[in-house]
Every structure is written in C-alpha cells, then in structure tokens.
Design the sequence.
C-alpha cells in the first residue's frame, strides 16, 4: 500500500458511542457492512470508531496478496486482539507497525484492510514473514453484496488508489 495517511474524522464526535457496525463504500456502489466484534476486539473497535476518518484512499497491498485497505493516523496502536495470520475474505483487519520495523519503510504505520479472496497473507515488508492482524469486524451482508465489494476491491490493483467512504451504524 502507499504511505498516504489520513487523519481522524472531524465528525467522530457525532458517531454512536458503540456502533453495531462499520460501512465501507466505493463511489457509485452500495455500502459494504461489517459487524464490529466488540467482545473479541474491544480496544481495536474503540480505536477505529474514535479515530477512523470519514473517507480515505483505498489502495492495494504490495506484499500481502489480495488485500486492500486504508492507512491512517500511525499513533493509533491498540493492543493486538482476536489475532491471526490466517485471514479470510470478509475479515476486517487492523495492523500497526512500529517505526523502523519494516525494511524500506522507516515510519510507523496503522492500517485497516480486508482480503477480497483467498490469496491473502498479512506480510511484513522486507521480511516476507507473516504479521499478526487483529480481526475487529466481519462482513455482514449478502453474497451478492460481497461479490460487488470484492470486485471493486480487486479493481484497485489496476486502477490504483480510489477513495472509499467510511460510516458507522
């Protein structure tokens, strides 16, 4: 992914305190709904709800396979929760990298991301070993909605970064 980082949303104060879910929407598409996993990853959910921007550049991963995501404020670093290196389509993931922990990428980084098919493995740049991702939400829609969202996610591989809107419900 690129190193373009977006900051916290100005409207974060207007969000529900404990929303049921998070919506991601590509321009001209339906909202893809993800149920927040408050029981399994409460601190990650809280950090994302409080600090996630209203929109951001969605970019394709360079190292982790069929993954796209949004980079945001690198000071956001909740503890690892509901952690795995085996991710599935429909997982909404969070990973933080400390400064100087990734070869060729000296700055810290926080990201949310999602695999859009089975060929995804969160990988540490420069080391090509698995990293741990916190699963903080799960897709909560129909197969048709997932196909549309996955197809738009896949398209970022050839189109480059595209804006995606973020909402909470």
Sequence:
């Amino acid at each position: 992914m690129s190193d373009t980082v977006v900051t916290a949303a100005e409207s974060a104060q207007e969000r529900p305190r404990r929303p049921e879910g998070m919506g991601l929407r590509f321009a001209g598409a339906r909202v893809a709904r993800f149920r927040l996993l408050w029981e399994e990853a409460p601190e990650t959910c809280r950090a994302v709800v409080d600090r996630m921007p209203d929109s951001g550049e969605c970019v394709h991963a360079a190292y982790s396979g069929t993954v796209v995501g949004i980079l945001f404020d690198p000071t956001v670093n909740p503890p690892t929760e509901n952690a795995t290196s085996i991710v599935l389509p429909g997982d909404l993931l969070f990973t933080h990298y400390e400064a100087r922990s990734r070869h060729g990428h000296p700055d810290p980084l926080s990201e949310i991301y999602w695999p859009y098919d089975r060929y995804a493995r969160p990988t540490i740049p420069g080391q090509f070993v698995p990293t741990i991702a916190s699963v903080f939400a799960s897709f909560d829609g129909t197969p048709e909605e997932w196909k549309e969202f996955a197809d738009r996610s896949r398209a970022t591989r050839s189109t480059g970064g595209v804006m995606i809107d973020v909402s909470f419900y």
